[in-house]
Amino acid sequence: NKEINIFSKFRNLDYILLVCLLLLGSISLATMYSTDGGEILFHTRSHFIKFIFFFFMMLVISFINVKFWFSLGYVSYIFVLGMLIWTVNFGVMASGSQRWLDLYFINIQPSELMKIFIILCLAKYFHRMRLENVNSFYAIIISLIIIFVPMSLVIIQPDLGTSLLISISGLTVLWFAGLNHKYFFYTFLVSLISLPVIISFLKPYQKLRILNFLNPDRDPL
Question: Are 178 and 127 in contact (CB under 8 A)?
Answer without folding.
Answer: no
